[in-house]
Write a structure and sequence with these properties.
CATH class: Alpha Beta
Radius of gyration: 18 Å
Bound molecules: S-adenosylmethionine
Strand order of the largest sheet: 3-2-1-4-5-7-6
Structural class: alpha/beta
CATH superfamily: Vaccinia Virus protein VP39
Number of strands: 7
Strand content: 15-25%
CATH topology: Rossmann fold
Length: about 260
Amino acid sequence: MKFPGHSRQPDSDQSFDDRAVHLQKNIYGSDKGKLRLLILQRDLAAIIRQRQGLSVFDAGCGTGLMSEWVALHRHRLFACDSSPVMIEEAKKRLSGYQHTTLYCGAIQTVEAKQRYDVVMCHAVLEWVKDQTALLSHLVRHLKPGGYLSLMFYNAWAREMAQLVYGNFDYIDKNYQVRQRVKLTPHWPASPDVVESLLARQKMHLVKRSGIRVFYDILRNRDHYQIFRDDIIRHELRVSQQHPYWQMGRYVHFLLRKEA
Ligand SMILES: C[S@@+](CC[C@H](N)C(=O)[O-])C[C@H]1O[C@@H](n2cnc3c(N)ncnc32)[C@H](O)[C@@H]1O
C-alpha cells in the first residue's frame, strides 16, 4: 500500500546519530516530551503497571526513556536502535536494571525468533521508508494475544497545521523543502492507512490517542509559559475523544494481536 506524501524524500531509513542533541533538548526536555510520556504511560498503564514478568521489545528505543519505565516495572526488556549514539545513551540509562538487553542495529534486522508480550515502537515509523514491511515485522515479533504500542507522526495533523499557518506553497509542493528541519519526519502516516494495514494482520485496536492535539497550533505563544498546566490537562482530556485524537501531531495506537 502506498502511504500519502511519499513522492520525494531520502532513499533510506533515517538514523539519529546527528540528531541526539536536538532530540534531548527539543523533545525530551520540553513540555512536548512530558505530554508524550504522560499519554504513552497512561495508555500502557493497565499492561505495564498491573502485570508482572512480561517480555517487552522496544523497537527504535532512542535514549531509552520508555525502556527505563518498562525496566522499572521489572519486565524483561529487549531494546534496539540503529544509532550507536542513541544506544550509548540508552545503555547509560539502563545500566542499573536487570533483565535488559540492548542491540545496536535496525529493527528490520532483528530476527523474529523470540516472541514478545509487548512490542513498542514510538516515533520511528515516520523515519522508515518501507512502512508496510516494518509494521509486518513488528507484528511477527508478537505472541498471540500480545500488544503493539505504536506511536507515529500523523499526516492529517501535519496538513491541518500547515493550513493554519497558511503554508500553502509548502502543501502544494507536497511538503518538499530544500533545507529540512532536523526533527521533521520524512514520512508521516495516515491513521486510517495504518489501522487498515494492521487490521489485515489480525491486529485489533484497543485504544487510540492523539498527542499534541492543539499544542502546536496555539495562537498565543505566551500561553506555553502562562498556562502550562492547563494546556497539559486539556491535552490529556481531549486526547482520546473523537474528533480530537485524529488531530494529534502524533497518534498512539494500542493494538492486540488475535489470540
Ligand atoms: C524520534 S526517535 C524516537 C526514540 C524513542 N522510541 C522515543 O520515543 O523516545 C527515533 C529513533 O528511531 C531510530 N531509528 C530510525 N529508524 C530505525 C530503524 N530502522 N531501526 C532501528 N532504529 C531506527 C533512530 O535512530 C531514533 O533513535
